[in-house]
Amino acid sequence: MPDPILMLEALAAALVASALVAAAGRLGGRRWAAASQAAAIALGVAAGLAVLKVHPRWPMREDQDRFLGLVLPAVVLLESLPGSVRFPGWARIGARLLASAAVAPALLFGSSYVADLAGPGSATWPPAQRCAILAGLGATLFAGWSLLNWTARRSGSAFRVPFALAGATAGASGCVMLSGYATGGMNGLPIAGALAGAAIAAALLRGDDRDALPGVGIVALSGLLLSGYAFGELRPDAAVALFLAPLLCAVPEAPPLAGLKPWARSAIALALVATATAAVVGLTLHRFQAAAASKATDDPYDAYR
């Protein structure tokens, strides 16, 4: 496991940098709210990754290079545009659909899941199965993104959706690290910190749903979970549960909870997300400990090596 002190420093650096940039961005007025929030998240992530001494490498041969150097910058740019550039509704939806469909192929490019590395027909997923899985992953991400957009608009909160995504991303980072992919999981912590920092600044400065930018968080969470499953040992049930956890923040917008005051709905939403995320982290930790105990039982001399 990576140094926990270093990980906390990266998380804190991302949170503080993001909050400061988001606060400074308020000087530009409401028109540039989305752009300033996107810049805050991007710079917060960069600050956290700098503490970890992580950066995408060129050429982008590994999934984390593409995740940090391609997927994340693209979605940050996409989310920064609607507030500052006028786009028709169909164009925004189409862009989100294309972005959702591109995440899984970008991360799995060149892997044994989609490429015939051991000869013709050796890919883990045959062509028909591959198309179905990639289409399903894209559709699921698009549906989650759309639901969180609706939740942000419905609640009018700058805090609820991004903070829910920050908590789920932090939990997913821990689960991925416990599932045999320490570097991939560690890279999620600056993202969680940046999302939280920007959300806190927006809430303190009376922001609204235009500051939420749910696409950044849900795409980052999806990419983190896919990498943990494909290149680590993250269980499918844990990955699905962690993806669904932040979507629970939409529950208080349905009757009868929709009649409550905004602060009460947000408190319930975040409690639901935190409970679900903690349950999955606890289950993954239990599995990790059980596997470690089983390994020690199989070879009692491991403890002395």
Structure description:
This protein is an all-alpha fold and 305 residues long. It has one domain. 70% of the residues lie in helices and 0% in strands. The chain is built from 11 helices and no strands. The protein has helices at 4-25, 33-52, 63-80, 89-108, 127-155, 160-178, 182-186, 188-204, 214-231, 236-244, 262-298. It starts with a helix and ends in a 7-residue tail after the last helix. The mean pLDDT is 91.
Secondary-structure map with pairings?
Elements: H1 4-25, H2 33-52, H3 63-80, H4 89-108, H5 127-155, H6 160-178, H7 182-186, H8 188-204, H9 214-231, H10 236-244, H11 262-298
β-strand number:
0
- The radius of gyration computed from the alpha-carbon positions, rounded to a whole number of angstroms, is 19 Å
Number of H- or I-type helical stretches: 11
For the biggest sheet, the summary is: none
What would the average pLDDT be, to the nearest integer?
Answer: 91
Strand content: under 5%
